[in-house]
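Hey L., structure's done. Input below.
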Amino acid sequence: MPADVSAAVITNTPLSSEYNVVALAAPDIAAAAEPGQFVMVKAASGHDPLLRRPFSVFEVLRDRDGHATGITLLNKAIGPSTRLLSAARPGDRIACLGPLGHAWGSPAPGSTAYMVAGGVGLAAFAMLAETLAAARVPQVLFYGARTGAELFYLDYFRALGVELELTTEDGTAGECGRITAPLDRRLAAASGASPVVYACGPEGMMAATSRLARQHQAPCFVSLERIMGCGLGGCYSCVVPVRDNDGRVHHMRSCLAGPVMSAEGIVWD
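Output:
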């Protein structure tokens, strides 16, 4: 069962003028969290904003004995809720419900994990990379951003032995262009490597990633970044159209069926 806690802010670390990482004291959530799961968060004590917002569990914090003590959230200040998180100070209380949703699965033995992240979609991969590194699964992170200054936590992934493929829209770091370009090349050259693709980021990027994976016959899973009102399946604000084997389209709630789902069958258009 998810825990609903008033979590104290431990630290708030700015990464840029828009991005920050908030650490929350939430041991019950941290102990239960699996890679790819999310929490519903509300930083305001009043009614503005009224609803909680979903955030991937970025990292699990542990004490010296290895006990889970808290979680971190990767935040981009783009609206009222995210601006409140950006301004949070140590000791502030954040309403936090979780962990929620389905986690990433582990690839089959002998596979290589291709993690495809766009912008704040990186939040879905820190825990996954740590788990796969412990299992000695080869990993490549395909990470795209607007500019080199928005490519975060690179040393974190390098320390786990993750190979990096980087792109930026302005060419200030890595390859200039979209992250799907190096992904396409690597999938084409991966004959016999059995890559499994994991993607999180803008929906257009995930749709393109899904098409490339299908073209190269690689399994593909996505973490959907849908707006959620409750995170528990009650409000139907996060429905995703999915086509079954008979061609019929069903609407599934991503907070319950996801956020991690097989890309096969998702109707992107």
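The chain has two domains: 3-100, 112-262. The radius of gyration is 18 Å.

-- N.
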